[in-house]
Specification:
This protein is mainly beta and 285 residues long. It is built from 2 helices and 16 strands. The chain has 2 domains: 41-151 and 262-271, Beta Barrel (Thrombin, subunit H); 161-261, Thrombin, subunit H. Residues 7-40 have low confidence and may be disordered.
């Protein structure tokens, strides 16, 4: 895993990389002006991301979320303040008062947001946590001018240009979706259909929970969670890839994320997690 870090390490944070604009997704006709080209480009920055005490995260919403719904924060299951869930363990609707530092586009803290509960958390099949906040989407936007990041409802596409945006380190990594892993095994945990980055996204401890954002749409397609640090096989901090035939591949220095489109069917009216909704495949308690 991209190891969670103790809050005391914040003072040693790396200098944040400036947010970069991404290239347009299609070739631009020569007749178009520079202004028209610029309008087609989606700028990915820190707005809507958060810093946890030990990880990164983001304020997210589904396409159907309403302004007065309680806002949700997305991070990793292994970032939960209750500790890493064991294999098969699912945390649902557990009271929490955890706080999150909300960042603006420049990566500056503009507010402290507070959770009312852990809406969902697991490290089985995926590595994800969703916190329900005491603030609504409308309150956050009205008070701080920051919109929640939208969860893409579709499976990500190989080759897509992406950015991993760490609120903890105030750093943005740029690379591409290199491919998808049938099973990613790390220690006692196994994750399904993980997203593998190209090598440029060399994420580190503290980037766990960072949103993985599609450059072209600005939508969240995955949540950053791990990487193979030492070239070991299937151990903690050294995940291995397992294909449908059981063949194992180790890629030292390569990092991974868990897809988030699977969350969308599980979030219903009021932006409440409902694991019984049609199409919801998240593990249940």
């Amino acid at each position: 895993m991209n190891k969670p870090l103790a809050g005391a390490l914040t003072a040693l944070a790396l200098i944040g990389a400036a947010a970069a604009t991404s290239p347009a997704t299609a070739a631009t006709p020569a007749a178009e002006t520079k202004a028209q080209v610029k309008a087609q480009v989606k700028a990915v920055d820190f707005a809507g991301t958060v810093a946890l005490s030990n990880c990164s995260g983001s304020v997210v919403r589904t396409p159907s979320a309403q302004p007065n719904d309680p806002a949700l924060v997305l991070s990793n299951g292994h970032c939960l303040e209750t500790g890493m869930p064991g294999p098969g363990q699912v945390v649902v609707n557990r009271a929490s008062s955890r706080t999150f530092s909300l960042l603006n586009s420049a990566g500056n803290k503009v507010a402290t947001l507070r959770a009312s509960r852990i809406a969902y958390g697991t490290m089985t099949d995926t590595d994800v946590s969703l916190y329900q906040l005491t603030s609504t989407y409308a309150q956050i936007q009205s008070s701080y001018g920051i919109k929640a990041l939208e969860l893409n409802a579709a499976h990500p596409v190989q080759g897509t240009a992406i950015k991993v945006v760490s609120g903890y380190w105030k750093r943005i990594y740029s690379c591409n979706a290199d491919g998808f892993v049938y099973r990613l095994k790390e220690g006692d945990w196994t994750w399904k259909d993980s997203l593998r980055y190209t090598s440029a996204c060399n994420t580190i401890g503290g980037t766990s929970g960072s949103p993985v954002i599609d450059n072209a749409t600005g939508k969240v397609v995955a949540v950053n969670n791990t990487g193979n640090e030492d070239g070991q096989r299937c151990t903690v901090n050294n995940p291995c890839e397992v294909d449908q035939n059981g063949n194992v591949t180790v890629r030292q220095g390569i990092n991974y994320a868990q897809e988030t489109y699977i969350l969308v069917p599980c979030i219903g009216a009021g932006s409440k997690v409902d694991l019984t909704r049609p199409g919801c495949t998240l593990p249940r308690p």
